[in-house]
Amino acid sequence: MPPVRTAAALLALTAAHTPADEFDSDGFRIHYTVSGLEQGPTLVLIHGYLGSAAIWGSDFVRPFMNTHRVVAIDVRGHGQSQTSADPDDHGDAAVQDVARLLDHLGVERADIIGYSMGGLIALRLSVLHPDRVNEVVVGGAGFDPDWDATFDAQITNTCADLRAGGGFARIFTFMTEPEGVDPIPPEVVQAVNEQAFTTATRAEWAASLEGFLDWQYDPGQLESCNADVLFICGDRDPFITSARSAARAMPDATLVELPETDHMVAAGHPRFIEAVAEFIKPD
Q: What's the whole-model pTM score?
């Protein structure tokens, strides 16, 4: 049975986390946490939109604590990392932050796990910098040019809502549109809105989303990428179309579909954690 969506789980998306380390990424302050095996191979965790390094719970991290150095990054514009109201400061810059994080840590290659927005970043990192990754997990994300146009429209409309003084209701509605998915209660969405606006302005949250608009790949880029990629997506997740498409296009990719599972709960699904633990192996 899939995990139950709770108000506490959604509020955790915007929770602040324990102070750790930071580095300068081309003039931008990026925050991250480190746990696990100090001298082990590096595993980087990349959270989703509105999240932070704090969302990776103990159940998710536990399989890697004795085998990896686990590094959870606050994507720029999130958590304790620096933010900006300029869309040009987001998007591909967030991908470069991960590469610079590896430079900062003195690591040539790392395993990568990303979910939702973090999955988009992980996929783009594997395509643009395949020499920096070992195994890559792309959760709740993918790439399909036709479907992505639909998602870009949702981003554009959500950004318009934010700049008009609204919140994130539209994007939550989109994520729970598939048949069989319960809507998120309005009071939970309101609580997420209130928490989010204590850490960044509406303009900054909008810019963070707009930075990911029109992320395209040249013909053959996915087909020629030799990174070892595992896609994991719920079959009631709007991203399932793009996950299937990207998995078909990439020669060394596999796809795990989680039955009767939506975008908001997939990362906590026991099969998600099990599949990731099976895929990410110590060197």
A: 0.93
Q: Give yes or no for a contact between 225 and 249, defined as CB atoms under 8 angstroms apart.
A: no
The whole-number average pLDDT for the span 140-155 is 93
Q: What is the rounded CA–CA span in Å between residue 50 and residue 199?
A: 10
Alpha carbon distances (Å) from 177 to 103, 137, 181, 184, 242: 40, 25, 7, 10, 16
Greatest CA span in the chain, whole angstroms?
A: 50
Q: Pull the structure tokens for residue 177.
A: 């549109």
What are the tens digits of pLDDT across the range 177-188? 998 899 999 999
Q: Which fold has domain 7-279?
A: Rossmann fold (3.40.50)
Give Rg (Cα) of the chain.
17
pLDDT at residue 2 above 70? no
Contact 258, 266 (CB under 8 A): yes
Q: What separation, in Å, do the N-terminal and C-terminal C-alpha atoms of the chain show?
A: 33
